[in-house]
Design brief:
Distance between the termini: 40 Å
Radius of gyration: 13 Å
Strand content: over 45%
Shape: globular
Helix content: under 10%
Order of helices and strands: EEEEEEEEEEE
Number of helices: 0
Number of strands: 11
Oligomer: single chain
Length: 118
């Protein structure tokens, strides 16, 4: 069992930056692929970024060049650095962990709200 706890969300203006953190419980953090998803009001949850066990990173096109995902296995934590935020980035952001495919997570966090005002 893995528990994920996100933090770092908030209300910012367009162009600002935020860093989300996701702290994971358990001693097998390094064995999981980790990712961030988001869900805007009235929309389905969508993939944002992921970092594999080996450190490979992937991003959805709309955040490439603006967001950076990273992980610190010594702290059991995954981060999402979000720069040049846009109003369309407004959503609840969820951390996820998967032992196989990040697009089919085994575990989810409770989510953290990010609101970007224009």
């Amino acid at each position: 069992q893995v528990q994920l706890v996100e933090s770092g969300g908030g209300l910012v203006q367009a162009g600002d930056s935020l860093r989300l953190s996701c702290a994971a419980s358990g001693r097998t953090f390094s064995s999981y692929h980790m990712g961030w998803f988001r869900q805007a009001p009235g929309k389905e949850r969508e993939f944002v970024a992921s970092v594999s066990r080996s450190g490979d990173t992937y991003y959805t096109d709309s955040v490439k060049g603006r967001f950076t995902i990273s992980r610190d296995n010594t702290k059991n934590t995954v981060y999402l650095q979000m720069n040049s935020l846009k109003p369309e980035d407004t959503a609840v952001y969820y951390c996820a962990a998967s032992g196989r495919l990040i697009l089919a997570p085994d575990y989810w966090g409770q989510g953290t709200q990010v609101t970007v005002s224009s």
